[in-house]
Amino acid sequence: MPAEPALPTVRTIPALRERIAAWREADESVALVPTMGALHAGHLSLVALARSRCRRVVVSLFVNPTQFAANEDLSAYPRDESGDAAKLAREGVELLFAPSVGEMYPQGFATQVTVSALTRHLCGPHRPGHFEGVATVVTKLLLQALPDIAVFGEKDWQQLQVIRRLALDLNIPVEILGAPTVREPDGLAMSSRNAYLTQEERRIAASLNRVLGDLAHALAAGEPCRAAEEKALRRLLEQGFTSVDYVTVADAETLQPIDRLGARPARAFAAARLGRTRLIDNLPIPGM
Ligand code: PAF
């Protein structure tokens, strides 16, 4: 059997910068794909998009402790660096950046990036501190690598808008690209957290996308937003979700909840819990 290709891995910021500087010397473009590992086909689609745009692709693997609240799943979060590295090597990724917590947050670390407005809605109130953790680590990764582009999944639509905002506001010279959500055959959005689901929960989980799709179509057909949202909420609970953080329609860019569709693009968003697993998904409203 041919040997698996090895993936060059660096764990320090100077080593990352040294590799990228050599590519820059040769006038090569660089893409960054930030991840927390436990890679699935969704992540590999981000890599493919990065690869279609740049000569060199760097993937970061860092389970960022500051984006998990005290009651969340940091210690249980799936970790498989060697499995991830093998997948990335097969995709032709040139470099894995896998820093330690100490490398990213040295002793005395005291700076936080807060993106206001966008984080007041959807997941923001349900995950206090989460977006500060994301915004801070992504700002650091962008400044460490200074890539031409960075790619994030549309499944985390709110995160994508927050990252676009911070790059713009902080004048970080990078193009932020969103990649479409990759789904299982039954419609469930791929997520590292799907690994937590029991067989029964996995069956119920598929209904999140169906309910959201029906909500989006009902809105496109002119049903009033509040009534359609209430129906979707009832259906999620009937399907077996333990609780629903939100199921709502909001402006696709500002994320402000909306009462009635207008000229601006809107999306349907949901976050719901199945036992200890929190799932999120979002869809465009057809025709918008
Ligand atoms: O989407 C994720 O995996 C994480 O939130 C990110 C962007 C890598 C930051 O830790």
List the helices and strands and how they pair.
Blueprint: E1 9-10, H1 13-25, E2 30-35, H2 41-53, E3 56-61, H3 81-90, E4 95-97, H4 101-104, H5 123-126, H6 130-145, E5 149-153, H7 157-169, E6 175-179, H8 199-220, H9 225-239, E7 243-251, E8 266-274, E9 277-284
Parallel strand pairs: 1-4, 2-3, 2-5, 3-4, 5-6
Antiparallel strand pairs: 7-8, 8-9
The structure holds pantoate.
> Into how many domains do the coordinates divide?
2
Beta content: 15-25%
Q: Major β-sheet, in short?
A: 6 strands, parallel
Ions, cofactors, ligands: which are bound?
pantoate
| CATH class label of the largest domain | Alpha Beta
Overall SS class: alpha/beta
Report mean pLDDT, rounded to a whole number.
96
The helix content is: 25-40%
| CATH level-3 fold name of the largest domain | Rossmann fold
- Contiguous helical run count: 9
Outline type: globular
Using only CA atoms, what is the Rg?
19 Å
Query: Architecture of the largest domain, CATH level 2?
Result: 3-Layer(aba) Sandwich
Unreliable runs, pLDDT <50, ≥5 residues?
A: none
Intertermini distance: 50 Å
Strand order of the largest sheet: 1-4-3-2-5-6
